[in-house]
Write a structure and sequence with these properties.
The chain is an alpha+beta fold. Helices cover about 40% and strands about 25% of the residues.
């Protein structure tokens, strides 16, 4: 058995002898090459070193490229995180700003207010409404005015147990008696699907100009006088028409409604309250 193993090992060495010889010759040639100072050998050695350096440089570039790709991915991830954090901080800042304005308005106005949060909007339906988180259990009643610090937003249209529908000023069935602050011109403000918010019923000879603020009038049975409605854009006179058409820019940003106030002061107290304060206009 032992003899057979020795024979097999000898056969393996004999069959691989040529390879061992070639390998030894290459090693010897390289040793001679790098230990020979002949000019030709030295030039050849320099060429080999140059090629080796070039190869090493390529490998190093590839390594740096791989590392740069990983760093770029990490930077992108960090940038995304910072962007999200920045967005959250900005949202918190804006919410704080809105709440501060609401608080200041509540402290400034003589009217009794109840703050409400907009749950969702139903502006694609008729009437154009938003749903707030106050209902009959919180004392809400139909036709209560709804405002923001910027002005009149609408009125309570329907009351549920815990929520209410607010009919917005942008609804075509909504109208309110109004007057201009500058010329004290009276009219009716309503929403038109084609012309937007406008004041109608104003005589042709009335004095009203672009930039005038239009507010609720003293003749409204539902709304306290002096609530901002909108700013006059450009009055127009149509030939043969006895009245002017006065387009308005809404005072309230209806695309940003998040918090509202419901005026809980009884309607019969509006004139007395506003006359005492004289601050609504």
């Amino acid at each position: 058995m032992k003899t057979a193993l020795l024979d097999r090992s000898n056969e393996y060495l004999i069959s691989r002898r040529e390879y061992f010889t070639l390998f030894a010759a290459i090693v010897a040639a390289i040793a001679i090459l790098f230990n020979n100072d002949a000019p030709q050998i030295d030039a050849l050695r320099g060429l080999a070193v140059d090629r080796l350096a070039l190869l090493q440089e390529k490998l190093s570039w590839f390594s740096r490229l791989t590392q740069s790709t990983e760093e770029m991915s990490a930077l992108r991830q960090r940038a995304t995180q910072l962007m999200l954090e920045n967005s959250q901080l900005r949202e918190a800042y804006l919410e704080n700003f809105r709440l501060r304005r609401l608080l200041e308005y509540r402290e400034r106005t003589p009217l009794q207010l109840r703050s409400a949060r907009v749950l969702f909007a139903e502006r694609s339906r008729t009437p154009n409404t938003v749903v707030i988180d106050l209902g009959a259990r919180q004392g809400m009643r139909v036709n209560m005015p709804v405002v923001t610090p910027d002005g009149l937003a609408g009125k309570i249209y329907k009351v549920n147990a815990r929520t209410s529908l607010v009919q917005l000023l942008l609804d075509r069935n909504f109208s309110v008696s109004a007057r201009s602050q500058g010329g004290r011109v009276l009219g009716i403000v309503s929403w038109s699907e084609t012309r937007g918010l406008e004041m109608t019923g104003v005589p042709r000879n009335a004095v009203i100009k672009a930039g005038d603020m239009v507010v609720t009038s003293d003749y409204s049975a539902l709304y306290p006088p002096g609530l901002r409605i909108g700013k006059v854009i450009a009055p127009s006179l149509e030939k043969g028409e006895p009245f002017m058409r006065i387009p308005l820019e809404p005072a309230v940003r209806f695309d940003r409604l998040e918090e509202l106030f419901v005026i809980t002061t009884p309607a019969e107290s509006f004139k007395v309250t506003v006359a005492d304060s004289s601050s609504g206009d």
